[in-house]
Amino acid sequence: EEMNDQMQVRRQKLQELIDLGIDPFGQRFDRTASAAELHEKWDAFSKEELHEKEDESHVSIAGRLMTKRGKGKAGFAHVQDLSGQIQIYVRKDQVGEEQFDIWKMADLGDIIGIEGVMFKTNTGELSVKAKSFIMLTKSLRPLPDKFHGLQ
């Protein structure tokens, strides 16, 4: 019963995306790095060093939305690709209202694309600060629960 409700909500969001003129199942997106490559290249840098290197740390990544948190004008999430996970940070004043509205519609399991720069949070977690956000594929079914996991 609850699953049906969740799937209904996802279908409503799908329709909202279509109404906005967004193809929810097929946009080309060229990524420049995988999550593992980002960790390999940038993990060793401090928060301050990354801030200084912002100009040379521009990346494009794509993956499945695994976690999402934050309300209001900003949010954090983890994106998983075949190599692993990376945290992303999406702020309304960075990506613009239109892209931020699409971000708010994103559900766990959706495939998303992010262009941005590398930075570290106050807790030291390597992250991508989004300059642009794109919905690549809308997931119509919820992710399996953590107990069973994703293969």
TrEMBL record:
EC number: 6.1.1.6
Entry's transmembrane regions: none
Entry superkingdom: Bacteria
A biological process term (GO) from this entry: lysyl-tRNA aminoacylation
Keyword Zinc-finger: no
Entry GO MF terms: ATP binding; lysine-tRNA ligase activity; metal ion binding; tRNA binding
Record keywords: Aminoacyl-tRNA synthetase, ATP-binding, Ligase, Metal-binding, Nucleotide-binding, Protein biosynthesis
GO cellular component: cytosol
Enzyme class, first EC level, given as a word: ligase
Pfam families: tRNA_anti-codon
Family of this protein: Belongs to the class-II aminoacyl-tRNA synthetase family.
PANTHER family: LYSINE--TRNA LIGASE, CHLOROPLASTIC_MITOCHONDRIAL (PTHR42918:SF15), LYSYL-TRNA SYNTHETASE (PTHR42918)
Name the UniProt record assigns to this protein: lysine--tRNA ligase
